[in-house]
């Protein structure tokens, strides 16, 4: 089987009520389905997350890796990278969702601009009812997700730190040359602000 061009890693912990929306948005991309894979890394959820995604698994749309113990976001992201086969890799949180052009636009930047190691996009700050609150710039208020990187670069810098249960994004960014990350000023990611996200809990 031909390897996919893009690997999408969805880390999940107890977001069973949100993850279907996330996966539907990833399966609705304006990109040929054979060009990307979706890997869900479940961090030993205690809710109905696995039941929520079973239909996607049965249809062959999603690959699921279940951690034997809770590793945190850094460890789960690392597991996703280790199971990926794509030339490019992007993370999406299971309580967020993306626009139809998300993968194609980010991928095209890396494909045609070899001087960049990664590409980010702007995002919609969205409430729990999917109403857009504001448009945010990744350059001003970066997220841990929505950044597509060359997998080869991730391997060179040592991937995600599995010891980082939180702030895994800052740890990774500190090891990347940010001057070589292009920001596409188009909102393609929907960051859902519902007060129960791991980002909110960190703050």
Q: Could you describe the 3D structure shown?
A:
Mean pLDDT is 91; it is low at 198-203. This protein is of the alpha/beta class and 203 residues long. The relative contact order is 0.19. It has eight helices and nine strands. Strands 1, 2, 3, 4, 5, 6, 7, 8 and 9 form a nine-stranded mixed sheet that branches. Helix 1 links the parallel strand 1 (6-12) and strand 2. The protein has one domain (6-113, 144-178): Spore Coat Polysaccharide Biosynthesis Protein SpsA, Chain A, CATH 3.90.550. The longest helix has 11 residues, at 72-82.
The chain-level structural class is alpha/beta
Oligomer: single chain
pLDDT below 50 for ≥5 consecutive residues: which ranges?
198-203
CATH architecture: Alpha-Beta Complex
**Number of distinct helices:** 8
Number of strands: 9
- Rg from Cα: 15 Å
Number of separate domains = 1
SSE order in H/E notation? EHEHHEHEEHEEEHHEH
State the distance separating the first and last CA atoms: 43 Å
Which labels suit this protein?
203 residues, alpha/beta, single chain, nine-stranded mixed sheet, 9 strands, Spore Coat Polysaccharide Biosynthesis Protein SpsA, Chain A
């Amino acid at each position: 089987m031909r390897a996919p061009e893009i690997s999408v890693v969805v880390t999940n912990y107890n977001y069973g009520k949100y993850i279907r929306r996330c996966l539907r948005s990833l399966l609705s991309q304006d990109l040929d389905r054979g060009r990307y894979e979706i890997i869900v890394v479940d961090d030993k959820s205690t809710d109905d997350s696995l039941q929520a995604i079973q239909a996607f698994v049965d249809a062959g749309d999603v690959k699921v890796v279940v951690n034997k113990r809770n590793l945190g976001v850094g460890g789960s992201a690392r597991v996703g990278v280790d199971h990926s086969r794509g030339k490019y890799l992007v993370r999406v949180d299971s309580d967020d969702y993306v626009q139809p052009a998300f993968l194609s636009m980010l991928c095209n930047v890396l494909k045609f601009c070899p001087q960049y190691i990664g590409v980010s996009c702007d995002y919609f700050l969205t409430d729990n009812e999917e109403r857009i609150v504001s448009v945010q710039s990744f350059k001003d208020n970066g997220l841990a997700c929505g950044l597509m990187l060359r997998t080869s670069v991730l391997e060179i810098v040592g991937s995600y730190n599995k010891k980082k249960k939180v702030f895994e994004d800052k740890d990774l960014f500190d090891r990347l040359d940010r001057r070589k990350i292009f920001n596409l000023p188009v909102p393609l990611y929907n960051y859902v602000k519902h007060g129960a996200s791991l980002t909110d809990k960190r703050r």
